[in-house]
Structure formats: structure tokens, C-alpha cells
Amino acid sequence: MAQIRIENVRKEFGAFTAVQSSTFTVEDGEFFMLLGPSGCGKTTTLRMMAGLELPTSGQIYIDGEEVGQRPASQRDIAFVFQMFALYPHMNVRKNMSYPLLSQGMPRAKIREKVAEIAKILKIEDLLERPVGGLSGGDRQRVALGRAIVREPKAFLMDEPLGALDAEFREHMAEELRSLHDRMGATTVYVTHDQLEAMQMGDKIVVMNHGVVEQFGVPQQIYDWPATKFVAQFIGSPPMNFLDFDGVVARGATNVMVGDANFVIPQHLTGAQGSLTLGVRPEHVQLNDAASYRGEVLGQEYLGTTQIVTIRSANGVLKARISSETPVRVGEQVGLELDARKLTIFDAGTGRALLSAANQEVLNHG
Ligand code: ATP
């Protein structure tokens, strides 16, 4: 079990900076997600935690001890690659025993340890089978088992479910999470899939172009994105943006967007100029009495809900509403935005106008 702290960590590859200056803490026992689009620096960050890359500058602490310049072999952390890295000519037992054999553990103790982990992973009946003939899911369990038997301080996983089809992926995600809940080992997990991050993570770091955009629990990140990037990357469909020129006073209760007056949450800081109002699709309702209006451009039936696309004076937005609400393409509708859930961003910097206290909570979980 371990706490991992990354402090002002930067990684350059020649003239290219893959990780700008990251600071965050993975608490002991957490299931922690590193989330972001391809190339944002997730894997590089994970490899620096493991000691497979050394940071150009900054510190990495494991349980308070600075390990940033130490190689992987001195960190007692298990790196679980995409889980197909097994020895194909060996059976399951030998694959799982191998790390312990190379540590010099007595054979009787190895047998006991492998049996214990095989039971947790529900692969006891596979122990004598060659790994070559196993299904993808069983191979993943064996690969996990091989990492777990060593009882490392933490597990680092790089898109471990990336190669699986959607249905099986969901099943394995649930299994990994419940395995973590039983074992309680600190786990850092890289993914580009926002749904996977929201479903599995205790905390999430969202990265973009080598920068940590936000760090917090999934609900904070969903409800109060710190930047427009996070607001768009998380959620499907993503947050809607309405652009306007205006003024928001510190602690204001209302904002004028064009001719419309919207009630807003009071914890926003002040700003003026080019601003963007952000609202999630489920916080947009159609209401004939509402003065803010738009034209329905399209609708997408999703069973219990539908996504309605509407063009307003300040931009196109999507509303997630009951599929029982009748909507016609081309009609004019009134739009009501849930006042408690609106966010405003500075259009230039892309940062949310959140009070310092709120920003602190968002950035430090
Ligand atoms: P992906 O999901 O595609 O792996 P990622 O967020 O994990 O993306 P990284 O693998 O950390 O991203 O890569 C970040 C950037 O650093 C990329 O532009 C990549 O090309 C670059 N990079 C990574 N490793 C090296 C290296 N050894 N030498 C040069 N550039 C590298």
C-alpha cells in the first residue's frame, strides 16, 4: 500500500515537452485515473511513477520518500502493461510463480501464494492449463495475478482493457474495480475513455497537451469542470457552450446572455468581455414559457431519453429530455437552463469563473 505524490514533474524528450509541470497526490488505497486524449502525456506520467522514465525536473514521492531518479527495480511498484505479456509456453501456475521464483521465495511458499491469489481471481481451475489456449479474459486475469503475487506497494496500469471488445471490457472493468475493493491496493490507471474513468475512479486527473487540467472526484469534475477542455472531454454529449459578450459581477445572481437573463450559481468570480456559458444537456429543458428561444435542428431517440439539437442566438446546443416529449424539427422552442448547474468560462483562457475556494477544491480534490 502506498501514497504517490507527483510534484512539479516535467518531462522533455529533446525539444518536445511531453509533461509540462504536474502536481497531484494519489492517496493510499485509491483507484486513481489518468485521463486524457491520445498524446496528452498520460503514459509518460505513469512511466515516471514506475521509474521506467526519469523526470527532467520535479519530484516523485512514494510514501513520503523521494524516488524520482531511482530506477524501476528500486520502487516496488507493479506495472501492468496491456495484459497480454505472458510467457506463452508456460502454464498459468508457472506464469504466476515466475516473479516469486526470481525473488528466491521457497517453492512451498510460492505454491501457497499462487493458490491464494488464484482464488481471489477465480482462476484456480486454470492453474495447470497452458496460457496459449486461454480466452482473452482469462489471460487478463492471469496477467493480473502475476502482478499481484509480488504484493507490490502499488499497481500501475496502462489502458489494460484497451484491446477488448466493448461488452467484455465493461465486464473486466467491473472485475478490476471489485478486485481493487477487496485488496485495497493503490492503483493508477491510464485511460482515454471518460466513461471508464468516471465509472471506475475514486479520483481523476484530466490531462491535455502535457498539462493537468483538473484533479478531483468524478462528480466534481463532471459538475464543475475547471476548463472548457474538461467540460467537453467529459460527458456524452459534452457540455453545451453559449458564447456572449458581457459582465459577470463577483457573486452575481444573474447574467445577461444577449437579451436573455439567466440565474446563475453565486460561487462564480467576476469577469467581463468574451465569455462562455456552459450547461450540460440534461440541464436544458424545453419550456414554452421560457423567453430564451431556439429552432429545433434535429432529434436522436435513445429509448427513455432523446437528444434534441437546437440553434439559439448564442450557439447550437443539445438538450437531453424525456423521449415522450413531442418535438418537431423546424419548430421554435423555449429553453430553460437549470440555474444551479450553469458554469461560465472566460472564452480567452478557457478557465471557469470559479471562486478561489472552489478552484482550490477542484484542483486538489
Ligand atoms: P497515448 O494514449 O496515445 O499513449 P498518452 O497520453 O499516453 O497517449 P504519451 O505516450 O505519454 O501520451 O506521449 C506524450 C507525448 O510524448 C506524445 O506526443 C509522444 O509522441 C511523446 N513521447 C512519448 N515518449 C517519447 C519518447 N521516448 N521520445 C519522444 N517522444 C515521446
Automatic annotation (TrEMBL):
Coiled coil: none annotated. SMART domains: AAA (SM00382). It comes from the Bacteria. One of its GO terms (cellular component) is ATP-binding cassette (ABC) transporter complex, substrate-binding subunit-containing. Keywords: ATP-binding, Cell membrane, Membrane, Nucleotide-binding, Translocase, Transport. It is a peripheral membrane protein. Pfam families: ABC_tran, TOBE_2. It is found in: Cell inner membrane. The keyword Membrane applies. The keyword Oxidoreductase does not apply. Residues 4-234 form the ABC transporter domain. InterPro entries: AAA+_ATPase, ABC_transporter-like_ATP-bd, ABC_transporter-like_CS, ABC_transpr_MalK-like, ABC_transpr_MalK/UgpC-like, Mo/tungstate-bd_C_term_dom, NA-bd_OB-fold, P-loop_NTPase. GO terms for molecular function: ABC-type transporter activity; ATP binding; ATP hydrolysis activity. Transmembrane segments: none annotated. GO terms for biological process: carbohydrate transport. Belongs to the ABC transporter superfamily. This is ABC transporter ATP-binding protein. It comes from Roseibium polysiphoniae.
